[in-house]
Amino acid sequence: MSVDRYAVIGNPVAHSKSPLIQTAFAQATGQSLVYELLPAPRDGFVATVERFVREGGNGLNVTIPFKLEAYALARERSARASAAGACNTLAWRGDHWYGDNTDGAGLLRDLVHNVGATVAGRDVLVLGAGGAARGIVLPLLHEAPRRLVIANRTLSRATGLASAFAASGPVTAVAPASLAGQRFDIVINATSIGLGSEVPRDLWPGGLFSPGALAYDLVYANTTTPFVAWAIGQGATITADGLGMLIEQAAESFALWRGVRPETAPVFALMRDHRAW
Fold first, then answer.
1. What is the DSSP letter of 73?
2. Residues 122, 148: contact at Cβ < 8 Å?
3. Alpha-carbon torsion (204, 112, 77, 246), positive or negative
4. Given 151, 234, 247, 261, which is the most exposed site by the fewest CB atoms within 10 A?
């Protein structure tokens, strides 16, 4: 008897806790499935996905750096994936992939319900303009921040992203150097800084954090991430890494695949028990 197969695809992917999380969701909801790691060469995303389908794969979580390629691969897409122009979830529909983006929903649920942050009326900075950033800009704008600034080393990418969502709220794009002298209530790292690297000294100017500010890293790790360490040194009052977002967006993905949204609180407890990763 065949068992439904799911996986997380990325590069790197060995650090991912998605198998632990999704397996816990399956056990809690009585679903029969297997979930695994699926590493892919940076130039081999499509070939790896095609092999996964031939071997009976049913769905994928997609992480760095393949979210834009996943969007291109999906023949059918959700409204939130289309708005983001990126997919972090793929579901096999018999002869094609259905693409979704659960990043924004996962981030907002973690920010508001777990961290206790308020986005409305706040100054928000998103660092980065790649696939991770694309999935969170519109949900953040729907929370009515006073302003949302996107900063990226390649300014044209930030400008393009801001332009795509200009009709949805007060969003602008700047080069990192132009952040000097500005302060923000929420600073979100949507770059790959923290995946095996430190924050370069001259990457972002100091003084970005308003009193009481929150620093949120979409990256997660078994120790303090380089971005969070940098933010603490810069005076951030509250910090969080992306583990909560990972759990919440994973629940959204699970609901897409299996038709039931699992409770996330028990998985938070499970992950706290696994802090010695």
1. H
2. no
3. positive
4. 261
3-state SS assignment for residue 156: helix
CA separation, residue 171 to residues 124, 142, 149 (Å): 9, 12, 6
Q: Which two tokens stand for residue 196?
A: 């095996």
DSSP, collapsed to helix, strand or coil, labels residue 40 as: coil
Cα distances from 27 to residues 30, 33, 49, 236, in angstroms, run: 5, 9, 26, 38
Q: Is there a contact between 136 and 126 (Cβ–Cβ < 8 Å)?
A: yes
3-state helix, strand, coil in the chain (%, to 5): 40, 20, 40
Q: Does the global pTM surpass 0.85?
A: yes
Asked whether the beta carbons of 129 and 152 are under 8 A apart, the reply is yes
d(CA 276, CA 205): 33
Give the catalytic positions in this structure: 67
Q: Which residues contact 28 (CB under 8 A, 6 or more apart)?
A: 262, 263, 266
* Token digits of residue 22: 């999704």
For residues 62 and 90, is the Cβ–Cβ distance under 8 A?
yes
